[in-house]
Amino acid sequence: LLVHVLDATDPYNELHDQVVRDVLEELSLDTIPVLRVLNKADLVPPEEHAILAQRWDATVVSATTRAGLPELMVELERVMWREERLELKPSFRRDAERWEEEGDESD
To answer: What is the value of pTM for the model shown?
Structure first.
């Protein structure tokens, strides 16, 4: 799971988001789940929070005031556990362990 934190006040969020998606694709990591978080909610009018959350499919939080953090924890739990997307070991570690096991068998 990648938690992608964006600045809710940044007018270039679309560009930043696209760069992250491009890098993930280049690294062949574009299939991992991404949870978007818009930080600095305290600098955005409260009536815009729901609009931003829907537009970005994100959780809106403020690290300064801690607003939205309970909702973020709920969303993290949902993505990681309820949808059973959590992999306890990255694939490269699983592959390395499998390679080590196969190497032990041939010794």
So the answer is: 0.71
